[in-house]
Amino acid sequence: MSNRKDKGSFKDNLIARGEEARTVRKVVAIVISCLLIILIIGGISGFLYVKSALKPVDPGNEKGVQIEIPMGSSTSNIADILEKNDIIKNGLIFRFYIKFKNESGFQAGKYTFTKSMTYDQIIESLKNGRIIKEPVYRVTIPEGLTIEEIAAIYAKKLPMKEKDFIDKASDPEYIKQLMQKYPILTEDILNPELRYSLEGYLFAATYDFYEENPPIELIIENMLDKSQEVVGKYLNAIDEKDLSIHEAVTMASVVEKEAVTEDQRKKISGIFYNRLKVGMRLQTDPTVLYAIGGHKAKVLISDTKVESPFNTYRINGLPIGPISNFSENALEAAINPEETDYYYFLHDGQGNIYYSKTLEEHNAYKAEYIK
């Protein structure tokens, strides 16, 4: 009896061990299969990622990006700079590519790259110390210009029409899109009394274009990029001055039109703030000219009576918006004016400005220098 039980127990143990072994083999097979699948998927994903990283960031984007490679930059430094500026997708892969191709001898300097450039084009440029993409057009936009004047310059330099530029700069839907992209464009620019929402915000600078027919959106956004860069540096100072961005830009445009040198701008800005502080009107001629929409050698008394939210002879405070674009120097003067006791100033037509503390002194200068 005991032997039968032992044999039965032994047999049961063998069966149990066999089932356990089969279970283990199944589990091992499943684990190995999963690992193989993970490795295959990982390998394919890695291959696709590397393949994607080797391609240009944006093949259709010919917008120039200014980049400086400092002296003594290592390959890693260069790769990091390129990745940070979105010229390449992955700095590590770029470094492996350089090592694989056995490239070296990269030169420091200022470069203009585009997001459409391949690794080989970028490497060739860095080796030669020159830009690989020469601009098709180079357009300089001076300070103190309105949108209409800016449109006229682009129409002369590029294959586009003034009207098309102005229409795009006035398109309400496009303006709303730009407001999402550029924080300096606040709700103030939607005031229906403004002539153009973007007036004053298209920064004065030299712009390079790398396409035969650059879209107007690219032109406008190049200029807004520069405005965002410049104004962005002064946001804390603007806030400390208790100004809105729109007010700071508006004051900068008025200062730009009234003065040329840094000293003049700071002093005249101080005069404007003195007037605002005591409730005087700014009474500045450039706002009258903007209000009447024309250029005149001399502003007449009849001109100063025009009804307009820009005419500072008729309104209190600043005009409702900028009257032109401006330089960084004018913006700085608008935010950090010179403290002065003057309330008046006078241009003599020869580039000289005469400052006065009183109206009587101002009128005396006017009698002497204005004929």
UniProtKB/TrEMBL annotation:
Q: What is its EC number?
A: 4.2.2.29
Q: Which domain of life is it from?
A: Bacteria
Gene3D superfamilies in the record, alphabetically? Classic Zinc Finger, Endolytic murein transglycosylase
What would be an example GO MF term here? lytic endotransglycosylase activity
Q: Which Pfam family would be a valid example here?
A: YceG
Alphabetized InterPro entries for the sequence: MLTG-like
Q: Which family does it belong to?
A: Belongs to the transglycosylase MltG family.
- Keyword entries, A-Z: Cell membrane, Cell wall biogenesis/degradation, Lyase, Membrane, Transmembrane, Transmembrane helix
Q: What is this protein called?
A: Endolytic murein transglycosylase
What is the purpose of this protein?
A: Functions as a peptidoglycan terminase that cleaves nascent peptidoglycan strands endolytically to terminate their elongation.
Q: NCBIfam families this protein is in? A: endolytic transglycosylase MltG
Spell out the residues of the site Important for catalytic activity: E258
Gene responsible for this protein: mltG
Its annotated compartments are:
Cell membrane
Please cite one Gene Ontology biological process associated with this protein. Answer: cell wall organization
Task: Mark the transmembrane ranges.
Answer: 27-50
User: What organism is this sequence from?
Assistant: Ornithinibacillus bavariensis
Per the record, GO CC terms? plasma membrane
The annotated topology with respect to the bilayer is: Single-pass membrane protein
